[in-house]
Amino acid sequence: MKKILYITLMSVLIAGVFSSCKKFLERPPDGQMKEEDALKNESDFMTMINGQYTLIANPQMYGGRLQTIAEFLADEMDGSRLQGDYSEIFRRQNSIFGGFRDDFYKNAYRVINVSNLLLTKMSLVSPANQDNAKGQVLLFRAMGHFEMVRFFAQPYGYSPDNSQDGIPLRTEVLIGSVQRSTVAAVYAQIISDLKEAEQLLPDTYAGNYKATKWAAKAILAKVYFQMNDFANAYNYASQVVANPAFVLDNAYNLRYSPALSKEGILVIQNVTNYYSPGGELRGNYRSDQNIPLLSYTNQFYGIATQDPLDVRKAWYSNSLQSGYNVLTKYNRDFFDLPIVHLTEIKLILAESGAEIAAGNAGALSAAITNMNQILTRAYGGTTRNLGVNATAGLVISTARKERELEMVGEGNRYHEIKRIGARNGISVDRRGSPWNCNGFILQFPKAEQDAMTSFKLNPEGGCF
Where is the RagB/SusD domain (predicted)? Predict the structure, then answer.
């Protein structure tokens, strides 16, 4: 059974009111409602939690901004038409100026700050609902910190002890800037929050669905995989894959569809006439109406369409908008927005299982089985499947290749360039940048240093 959130009109309105009441790092102007003033009882508390789902799905975060920035920074896109903020990010020469990036940063910390506020108001929640409420709040806080540390800091593994500067770690309600914590400290907090959420959240929901413990497990798999901690990534991915509630879609193109996918582990649902997530994804990628902002290089288009058996070739066109290599994945008026889905978790299981195969033969067998399920769907049969005796190295290379092809347009490739670089010191960037160059991480908004002159910005400089 899918775990989805039915977003009510009220939760959308509440999130919008809260977003307009207080800018990041600023006190609310006189005469405007403070968030804490809106929290008077359990109903208010749960309404604000529902609003958090809207915040993570809005255009400034998972609704498109997160994916678009990652795609700009990666190596698949044609950036020749990009200007302003877009061009600066694409050229990996970020400065302290840039509203496109700033809004992404502010929205993520808005999710974190509201989570911290809710944690101070747990007494409003009845004992029977406290575990569920606290679990959701901790999940949101972990997600916000995880996405920020992936974009604004060098990756886990950049230094032996991960003492490199991370991001501001916010675990309490504060107004003003907070100095950066180390990457090690940020990841430790993310894992702590997710593990507690895993214990607190319910196994299933009846009626309308929200995050369950399986969302926490899936995101833990993602976090550990980003850390190249393959034993833990495999452990959590295996638990999720073993849950019969999540089923790999028969068709490759259902993941972003209106209620047709069975893969969603945490999904923001489209609600007809009330809420349609993924607006910036459609705006930046949709190719059946106009030339989209994002199109692909000839090099990547060739890679993605070279296998005649790959049914995913239908995701691309070089004729729909003449002269441009475009994606058709988001060519819908509306769709459900998966935050984490089974295809990604199976790919994590496959690569992680192969990485630990030397000490766990069963992990290699499970990796091959799950990899072949994705290959069978992608190539319309078993022709491209791995043999039962496939080597760990072949499974790893296959998982990396298929991950890029399966998760095209989902903001995946950028994080893989950094993760693989941290794993073995090799840069796989097709644009020729070192995996740890200064321009591969985003610069913090100027507002951080305005609020705290000692705030440490990222080093200036690009990648080329």
Answer: 336-424
